[in-house]
Write a structure and sequence with these properties.
- It is a single chain.
- The chain is mostly helical.
- It has one domain.
- It is built from 13 helices and 2 strands.
- The protein has a two-stranded antiparallel sheet.
- Strand 1 and strand 2 form a beta hairpin.
- Helix 5 runs parallel beside helix 8 and helix 5 packs across helix 10.
Amino acid sequence: MPDRPAILKREPSAHWKKPSGALFRARPDPRPIHAFPRQNTRFMTLVEAITLGIVQGLTEFLPVSSTAHLRIVPALLGWDDPGAAYSAVIQCGTLLAVCVAMGRDIAALLRGFVIGIASRRPWGSAESRVSCLILLGTLPIVVVGFALRKLIKGEARRLEVVIGALLAATVLMVVAELVVRWRSRRGSTGRQGLDGIGLSDGLGMGLAQVLALVPGTSRSGVTISSGMLGGLDRQTAARFSFLLSLPAVAAAGLLEAWQERAEIFGSTEAITMAAAGTASAAIVGYVAIRWLLVMLGRRTLWPFIAYRLVLAALLAWSLASGWVPAVG
């Protein structure tokens, strides 16, 4: 009597992901994989690329921490970490947003800087002075970032560190708002316009920018708060914060993109996903900058402070429940 045929076991699909504690559990995906390669061999879809680009563009400039959102949004949606290559690409999109949104200021600063250097009077005009302050304020983050690059890309990215940095920067924002309120009661409204930015502002905001090397801090949050503590009004502090970010963001983003170029330009699909994410980050980033500048001319940082506290609580609960891993 012939042996009975063995029961054939169906191998799991390559697109199937083990269910996790994410809000939306992963299911077998019948769609073809097209996209951005990951270390775990899963590929990014167009929806993921655009969504993460929107998250980056929105949270890079609002004082809410882009790192925290890029950790929790993919986890809650059941997606994988986007990886260093993709993060570097969409950071270039936010750089483009600053250049477009602050185009007039950038042109005036470059013109003033050239005239100041040519006339050997780098402090001769407000534009030349602010340009020099941007370069001076960028030095601390370059030096510290290079010295601590391994720590920043390693243990500093643990979710416990992100939560701690999120709370610490929130405290700084609270202090800045309380100081501004105290000054306003004494009749001081803060210095307005780029003409009011001095050496102490450039150094103070440049040193505060170093804190943004710790994921979860929010570069815009700590630099705007530092400017407010130094005597600038909210809108001027935000303007200088965005301008101050240009050299640091450009250097970090372009360097990371160059180091990950093999992955970024490894296939047509990868290039498409990178372009989609960069475009969405640039468009949303531009809108976020314009909106924040108008908003800070009329409102305070308190709505962002409240949001950051809620976000920190959500991240802590997600970590405790296992929804978001400690290491991304």
